[in-house]
Amino acid sequence: MKTIIKFIVLFLFTGSASWAQSLDTATYNRIKSIILQTGHQQVEELKTQVDQITSDPAPYLKSISNESGVRIYAKERAILLLQFYPTEDIETFLQQKIGDDAAPKSLRNFAVRSYANGFYWRNQTKVEGFLKEFRSESNLRTVVDRSLEEVKTNGPGKSFQKPKPDEIQRQKKDR
Q1: Is the pLDDT of residue 113 over 60?
Q2: Both ends of the chain: CA-CA distance in Å?
């Protein structure tokens, strides 16, 4: 009898903790279907659609950006949308993406943009200091400089402007 009680208590503590961390599958699939839509959509349109599904899409977006088998453009969109949900968890997540040398260049670039846009006006010195650590990497130098310049020019709450055609071509080559 004691063994059964111990098992139940253990299950309640470990099972409920992992269950609380899990994501709702239906919500995940709805957000993922929005992210996977083809065609050029403005980031604000995507945000509006995702916000209609849940008030806290950040964990779903993180999961989509980490899921193997998801197309790179969908991961880029998920990372880009994270700029609108600036929490400490998202800040850490984006910093890790930026620092991940094994990640595709385009994901790192979108993480730089999302990080700059989402966190610059919260702590300018911290964001500039962190991003400037990556200026020595030739594949990130331009996006770091451009992202910081855009966020300073556009002001708080403004998402980055649509990438220029030459930048889109460079990103396609990197995939």
Answers
A1: yes
A2: 58
